[in-house]
User: Fold these one by one.
Assistant:
Number 1:
Amino acid sequence: MQKISLLIMGILSLTFLHAQPPVIKHVVLIGCDGFGAYAVPDADMPNLKKLMREGSSSLSARSVLPSSSAVNWASMLMGAGPTVHGYTEWNSAVPEIPSADSSRYGLFPSIFSILKEQRPTAVSALIYSWQGIDPLIAKAATTIRVAGKDNDNFCTDTAAAIIRSKKPVLTFVHLDQPDGVGHTIGHRTPEYYKELKNVDARIGKIVAAVKDAGIADQTIILVTADHGGKGKGHGGKSLDEVQIPWVMYGPGVKKGHQLHNTIITYDTAATIAWLLKLKMPQSWRGQPVAEAMGK
C-alpha cells in the first residue's frame, strides 16, 4: 500500500511539473536590445514594473556567450545555443558552424518556423529595428514582416497597428534601444536610464494595443533582452553583460512572482512553443519556464 501511495504521489508530482498552461491564443515577445537586468531596479519604467507586479519575472536570466546581438537573438528565437544553431558572432548572417538541424525553410528551426509548419494558417508578425534580425528567420516562415530601419518608434507603432488589426498568433517586436545609447554614451549613465523611459513608453504602447485588440485575456506578453552591457560595449562575461530581464505577463501567470529557476535566453522560444502547444524540435535545448504559470 505504501509503495502504491508513493507511486501515485510521484505521478501527481510529474503531472504538476508538466501541467499545461491555460488556453493561450496569442504571444507577444518584446525584445529590447542591450537592456541589462542591472538597470531595472533604478529605472523609471512604470509600464514594465506593472507587468512585473502583475506577472512573473527574473532579473537573473542569462544570455549565451558571447553576450552579443545576433548570437543571442538567434538563441532566443531558435531554442538552442550557438554550438547547436551555429550563429556565433555579433552580426552573424549565416552560421559560422554548420547548424545541427534544419527546418523545411533551410535554416535552424525557429519558433516562427515550427509555428508555420505545425499551424500553417496561423498569422505571425516579425517587426525589427536592427537589420541583423532579418537573416535569422526565413521569410517563408513569417506572415507579416516589417523592417524598421533603426526606428524604434516606427516599429512600436507598426507592431501596435498589426496587433490591433491582424491579431497575430505570434508577434516579435525588436527594439534597438537602449543598446544605441549604451554604445554611444555608455551603460550605467544618466543618458542610459533616460532612454529606458522611452523604452518603457514603447512597451506601454504595445501592451495597450493588446487590450485594444480585445485579446488581453488570451495573450501572454514576454519582455526580455539579448544582452546587457558594460562601459560602451558588450560581448564579455561580466554579469552586467550577461544578465537580462525576463518578464512574463498574462492570463494564468503568477502575480508578483520572482522566478527562481535558472533561465537562459533559449528558454524563451521553448516557453512560447509550450504556451502555443507546439511540438519542440529535438535539437532545441530550451525548457519552458513553467514556474511562471499557476496560482
Number 2:
Amino acid sequence: MTNMAVTRELFDQVMVPNYAPAEMIPVRGLGARVWDQQHREYVDFAGGIAVSCLGHCHPVLVGALKEQSEKLWHVSNVLTNEPALRLASKMVEATFAEKAYFCNSGAEANEAAFKLARRYALEHFGAEKTQIIAFNQGFHGRTFFTVTVGGQAAYSDGFGPKPADIDHVDYNDIAALKAIMSDKTCAVVMEPLQGEGGIISPELDYVKAVRELCDQHNALLIFDEVQTGVGRTGALYAYMNLGVTPDILTSAKSLGGGFPIGAMLTTSVIAASLKPGTHGSTYGGNPLACAVAEAAFDAVNTDAVLNGVKEREGWYREGLAAINAKYHCFAEVRGKGLLLGCVLNEEFKGRAKEFLNAAMAEQLMVLIAGANVVRFAPSLVISKEDITEGLARFERAVAKIVNG
C-alpha cells in the first residue's frame, strides 16, 4: 500500500463525492508557494479558504507543533491542559470576552453559540424566546443547525425537516430586520463581513442599529468571525473596527493557522448557561491544537502584522485596478484587509468559476464567493514579491477569458 499511485482518479474511487477537487494534488508548501506532485509551483492567494494566516509551514507554527508533539497530544475534557488555558487567557485578554470554549471548527463554534443562545434565553426569559434571525446568503457551517441558520437554501435543502424558529432577512436592510424582531427573538447571527455570500461589508449605521435592536428585545448578538477573525481584516477581530461589541463571537480558520481548531467567546453571565454536561467536544481544546493556535494568535496579534494586512490590501487593490483598467471585467473590488472579492461586471456575470480555473492553469490558487465574485484570502504575511507574481499570473488568466 505504501507504493500506491496517489492520483486524482483515486479520489473518485475512494472518496465520498461531495467535493470536486482540482486535478492537481499539492504535496508541499512554504510561505505563499505550493508545489504539486509534478513539482510545479503555484502562488497561493486562497490560503486554504482564509485559514493559512501565516502561509505554509511557518517556522513559528512548525516549532510549536514539534515542541507540543513531544509533550502531550490529547487528554479528555475530564481534565484541562496548559496550552488550552494559555490560549483562552490570551483570547479573553485581547477581546471583549471573559470566557472561551474550544472545539474543532467554525461550524462547531457556531453550533455551540446557537445552542448557548437558546439555552440562555430559556433560562432567563422562558420557553417562548427561541427565534434565531440570520441573513440571506450567510454561511455558518455544515452541521444541520448551522447550515439552516446560514441563509443559503441550496446547502440546507434535501435533508428532511429543518431545525425550527430560524428566519432570514437581507443583509444591510435594517427595516427588514426590525419587521421580524420581537421579544421572542433569542439571537441575531451575522458575519461582520459576509464571506461566502459575496464579500459584502456592513454599513456602520446598520451594525449599530442591529446592536440596538438586540438590546431592545433582550436578544443576543452573535458575530460569526470564523472567516474575518484573527487579523483577516486588519483588526484582530472585525468587530473592533465597527464600534459594536457582540455578546458571543465565534472564531476558527486563521485561529489555528492550518491546524483544526475553533473557539466560541462570550461573557461570564452568558457562559454560565452552559453548565457541566450541557455541551462538549471530545477533541475540543486538545493540547496539540491549542499550542499551535497560541503560536498563531501571538504571531498575528501584533501591530506589525495587523498594519501589514492593511498595507497588503493596498497592494492588491492597486494591482487589481491596473488589471481592470486593461480588461474591464470587474464592477468593483469589495472587502477589507486580505478578504477581497473581485465582483464580475454584467458582461462576465456568473463566470467566476471560469476565472478560478483559468488562474489555476496559470499556477495561481484563488477562490470564488458565489458565481459572480473571485475571492482572495491569502496569508496575512504574504510578501510584495509574491503578490506581484500572483497578480501577473492572474492578469494572464483574465486576459485568456476576456480575449476568449
Number 3:
Amino acid sequence: MDTTYDIVIVGGGPIGLACGLAAQKAGLRYVILEKGCLVNSLYNYPLNMTFFSTSERLEIGGIPFMSINAKPTRPEALEYYRRVATSKALQVRLFEEVLSIAPDGDLYQVKTPRHIYRGRHVVIATGFYDIPNLMNVPGEDLPKVRHYYKDPHFYAMQKVIVVGAHNSAVDAALETWRKGADVTMVVRESGIGDRVKYWVRPDIENRIKEGSIKAYFHSVIKAIHPDTVDISTPEGEVTVDNDYVIAMTGYQPNFAFLEKAGITLSADSKRYPAYNPDTMETNMPRIYLAGVVCGGMDTHVWFIENSREHAEKIVEHITLK
C-alpha cells in the first residue's frame, strides 16, 4: 500500500497521540505508527508505578484525566490514553515498526514491514525507553540480568541486586524487599538520587539505615557470575551471593534511527538532536521531534507535562506554512 499523508507520526506514546489530536483538530490527514501496543512505554512501566505528576499535567488535547488518587497510577494512565485514542478515533497503526525515513521528492517515504507511507511532514515521537544503558561488565548478558523491572512477586525469596539510585531503582528495591527478597543496592553516587519522589525518599533511606536493605555507595559492579556478583567498593572488592540483577541504569533514544533519518546529533556525550525549539523542526526540512526524544542522553529533562506543547507547536508551524 502506498498512502500519502500531511503528517506521519512515528511513535504512539502520549506525545505521539497528542500530535495526532492536534493534527486532527487542524483538519490534517495523519497517521500514527507505533511499533508496540498503544502507549507501549507506559505499558512496560512497573505494574505498581505511581507518577510524580498530577493527572491534569498528564492530559493531552484538553481531554480531562480523572484519577481517584493524588498521583495517578500506571493502570489509570493506560486507561486514560486508551480512552483518548478510541473516543477520538485516532488513526493509529499498532505493532508496525518504522524501519526507515527517506526523502522522496517533496515527500518523505516512511517504510514499515507492512506498508510504505508517504508524508509531507514527519514527526518523530519515539521516546527513549527502548534501549537500556549498559553497564558493560562481564556477565551482563546472563539471563539473570534484567534492564526492565515489572512485577516484584517474581523476586520473592531471591537474592536481588538493584543497580542505581533514582526512582526506578528505588521502587524496585522497596517493592522486591516487601515481597521477601534479600535486596542489595549498588550506587555509583554518594547517596539516593535528588530526583527520587519525595514521598518515597524517607522510606528507602530508613530501610537502608536500619539495615533491611544493604547499600554500597560510591560503588560499581565489576563482574556478574551465575551465582555471585563482584562489586568494587571504597573498602575494596566484595563478592556477594546473587540470584538476579535489576540494572536500573536508565535508557536512551534510538540514536541510530535518528541519524539514519539524517538528523544531526551533537558531538559530545549528550548527543542532543538538532531542532528549532520554536517549531520543533530538525535540520531535515519538515521532519520534527516531539517529546523526550528531544533531550538526547538528558532523559530527565522532558516529560509528558512539559513536552505535550510540542504537538501544538508542530501543527501550528505546518499549518502556517
Number 4:
Amino acid sequence: MILTPQRHIAHFDLDTFFVSVECLQDSRLKGKPVIIGGSSDRGVVASCSYEARSFGIHAAMPMKLARRLCPQAVIRQGDMELYSKYSRLVTDVIADTVPLFEKASIDEFYVDLTGMDKYFGSQLYTANLKKKVIKESGLPISYALAGNKLVSKVATNEGKPNAEMCVAWGQEKSFLAPLSVAKMPGVGKETAFLLLKMGVETIKVLSEIPVEMLSNLLGKNGVSLWHHAQGMDETPVVPYHEQKSISTETTFQQDTIDLELLHAQLVRMTEKIAFQLREESKLTGCVTVKLRYSNFDTVTKQKTIAFTAADHKLIKVVRELFDALYERRMMVRLLGVRFTHLVPGNDQINMFEDTEHLVQLYQAIDSIKHQYGERFVGRARGLRPNS
C-alpha cells in the first residue's frame, strides 16, 4: 500500500493590498472607508478597505454606486507603480526565506513547506514568515496552512483580515463542509445559482452528490468540484521564475529607415503579445525592445513598469524605449518586443484612471480577436502606411 505523503501548503494573501499600501503613504487613512479606483462616476472600484466593504462596496462596482452607498468614503485614484514596487518587495522577502513558492497574483502566494516540519515545524515557520513580511514591508498579511492549495486558500479567505489559520491533516473535508458552495474556488455565479436551485447550499451537501451526477450536470468541472468538496487537491505549487517571458520579433524583407513603418510595426507587435498576456491571465512588469541595424549590430533597452496587460499603456512604453534606442539613423533589419516579470492577474480592475467604457472596450476587442483572430481588429496606428 502506497501512502500519500503529507503536504504542507501555506497560502499568503496581503490584506486589502492596494488600500494597505495607501495607508503606508498616509496614516490618516487607517480605519476609514477607503476606495481605490477611477475618480469619475464612470470609473470602477479596484479595491476597498474592510470599512468600505461594510457598506456593501466591492471590487468592480461602478464608482457612482460606491459613492452613493458611502458618501463619506475617501477615494484614491491608485498608483500601480507603487503597488508593483511593494509586490516585488514582498516577493523578495518570501524568495529569500522559503525553498519553493508560487506567486499566484500581485498580492497572493503559495508556499510549499512539505518536509520542513521535520526540522522547523511548518506552523512555526509560516508564522515567522508572516512576521518577517510585516516587519520588512509594513503591510498586513493573512495566511492559512493546510494539506493542499485549495483548502489553504479557502481558509485564508475565511480568516481574513489578519488570518493565522491551520487546517490539520485529515480535517480538510470537515473544514469545508459547513461553508457555502459559493466559497468553493471554481464555483462561479452561474454554477452557484444552479446548485442553489437544486438545494445544494453547503459544500457538505455537494460532497454527498454522486460524482457521476455532477459529471452529467457540469462535465469535467463537476468531477473537479466533487474532488474539491472531499477536500482533495493535488495541484502542485508551481515554482516562481521571474524570467518567464512573452515575446515577438519581426525581420523586415528589406531593411528600412521609414519611422512611420517602424512605429506601426511596434504597435502591431505590442498588441499581439499584450492580447496573449490577457488570454493567459497574466500581467507584465518589465518591457524590453530589441533593435538590429542593417550591419547586424543589435541593441536592447528595457524598463520596469507597473504590472499591466493593457495595450495603450504598453504601446506607450515600447515607443519610448524604441525612441531611446534608435540613435544611429541607420537602416533597421529587425524589431523585437519582450514582456518579462510575468505574474498571474487581470488588468481590467487595475485600470484606476479608466472608465467602465474602456474596460468594456477591452473585453469587446478581446472577444472579437478570440473569435476571429488577433489580426481582425487593431489600432489605426498599427496599419501599414499606404495600406
